[in-house]
Amino acid sequence: MAGRLPRDARGRARRERPGGDGADDIVFPLREFTGERIAFEISEGMVTEISGGARADNLRGFIEGYNDPRAYAVSHIGWGLNHHCIWRPDLPGIGMDGRAHYGNVLFSLGPDTEFGGENDTPCHLDLPMQAVRSGSTTSSSCRTARSCLRTCGHRAH
């Protein structure tokens, strides 16, 4: 089914960009900036390791708190296309500005039932990763997105 990740996908998702360390990426539903670089090791469509500093430990603890291994499943990957959105995690509502902000790559863990999948874990994390600097999109975000799609068995255009 379109949009579903194959179970045999293997690889490493890593987020880096010139002049940045990932500290201004957002974690929803925690509604906060990451504050540091956080890396996810992915194998067969599942996060197997979360590394970084104290924020990575907090994020890992948040997921572990659900006591559900399905919370580590990669749910979906998206791209922000709205030039009018504000890059802040604390705006009223459910965080659509951060998720839709132009130039971000959205990496998500958790449920995929809205896309026709079977994972209905209550743990859902959206991690929009900002890629816009001085009005231009950095090429690293595009490479990251293509790498994630190849890792998950999809073809990036």
Could you write a compact summary of the structure shown?
The protein has 157 residues and is of the alpha+beta class. The chain is 18% helix and 25% strand.
Structure explained in plain terms:
The chain is α+β, with helices and mostly antiparallel strands. The protein has one domain. It has helices at 54-64, 96-100, 139-151, and strands at 10-13, 26-27, 32-33, 39-43, 46-51, 74-79, 105-109, 125-129, 132-133, 136-137. It is globular, with a radius of gyration of 15 Å. The two termini are 19 Å apart. The model is unreliable at 1-20, 132-143 and 149-157 (pLDDT under 50).
Q: How widely separated are the two ends?
A: 19 Å
The total count of helices amounts to 3
**How many domains is the backbone divided into?**
1
Reading side by side through the largest sheet, how are the strands ordered?
1-4-5
How do the SSEs run, as a string of H and E?
A: EEEEEHEHEEEEH
- Radius of gyration, in angstroms, nearest whole number: 15 Å
Shape label? globular
Q: What percent strand? A: 15-25%
Number of strands: 10
SSE topology sketch:
Elements lengths: L9 E4 L12 E2 L4 E2 L5 E5 L2 E6 L2 H11 L9 E6 L16 H5 L4 E5 L15 E5 L2 E2 L2 E2 L1 H13 L6
Antiparallel strand pairs: 1-4, 2-3, 4-5, 6-7, 7-8, 9-10
